[in-house]
Amino acid sequence: MAVYYVEYGTAWTLHGYQLVDRSTGQYKTTPTLATGDFKVEKDGGAAANLTSLPSVSPAGGSSVSISFSKAELQCKQLTLRIVDAAGAEWNDDCIHIFTVGNATAHEQFNRFHATVALSPASRQEVTGGVWEELRTNHLGAGSFGQGVSSVQGSVSGNVAGSVGSVAGNVDGSVTGSVGSVASGGITAASFAPDALSAPALSAAAAQKLADEILNRNLAGGGSGNSRNVRNALRGLRNRVKNQGGTLSIYEEDDTTIAWTAATTTAAGDPMTELDPT
Asked: Is pTM beyond 0.70 here?
């Protein structure tokens, strides 16, 4: 009786199997192999003929090649009974095959692979153990563990490369640069009272704020439109000209018209109405 381990559901051939001559006790040369001599039982099920009849290989010798199909190896244990159905050329024999490398195999571990693959459950155990590990156990200077543990306190330098972003809170300070902040990432509660003081804003930033105020729609709720703060102030400082019933308010170059208004006049041309367009 022989025992073999084979990959689950993978066709496999056993070469060099030897049958023992019942009369001489020696290996049987050129045994007569016929249908019914090789029976397979899968996981204790009913016996059936082996799909492929074995052959003597090389021809004229005693070595027998026995091939198993993918379907025949889709089980935990396969038993091959070898009995000369026509007579007694060789001693009865039996081969046991245990499958590996599959969730439904005899062994999930695949001993034939150069690398070891962990099952999903094993991977969860490993990753769970990593995340549950105490930070205080990994504070070696310059180590990855030290870098991870420091996130609880301060982040020094840049958060970049494969990390890319920090999801959640950093309880401490960030010394370095932040490439970008997601939309809505900074809320009103993030600012201390008077945090945006004059020294906190550059001249360019202050100018952009002022420009946006001038561009604010008088009706609120947005910017732009001709009825904005900038156009409202232009009539106080820029060129204003009444041209036969049309009042023109100019831009700061006193050449380009910013907006116009239709005027209504009475005798002597006193202006009685100003209707901006």
From this structure: no
* Phi–psi pair at 152, nearest 5 degrees: -65, -25
**In the predicted structure, residue 73 carries a pLDDT above the cut 60:** yes
- Between the CA of residue 24 and those of 1, 28, 51, 89, 184, what are the distances in Å? 19, 9, 30, 10, 89
Query: Residue 240 is encoded by which pair of tokens?
Result: 């204003």
Show which of 55, 79, 100 is a domain's final residue: 100
* CA–CA gap between residue 109 and residue 103 (Å, rounded): 9
Within a domain: 232: yes
Res. 152 pLDDT band, cuts 50 70 90: low
Q: Is 240 helix (H, G, I), strand (E, B) or coil?
A: strand
The domain boundary residue, chosen from 76, 100, 124? 100
Cα–Cα dist 50/41, whole Å: 9
Find tokens 């907006």 and name the residue.
259
Q: How far apart are CA 233 and CA 94, in angstroms?
A: 104
Amino acid at 38: F
Domain range for 252 is: 202-277
pLDDT tens-place string over residues 172-217: 666 777 777 777 777 777 777 777 777 777 888 888 888 888 889 8
Judged by phi (left if over 0) then psi (alpha if -120 to 50, else beta), residue 111 lies in: alpha
- Total domains present in the chain: 2
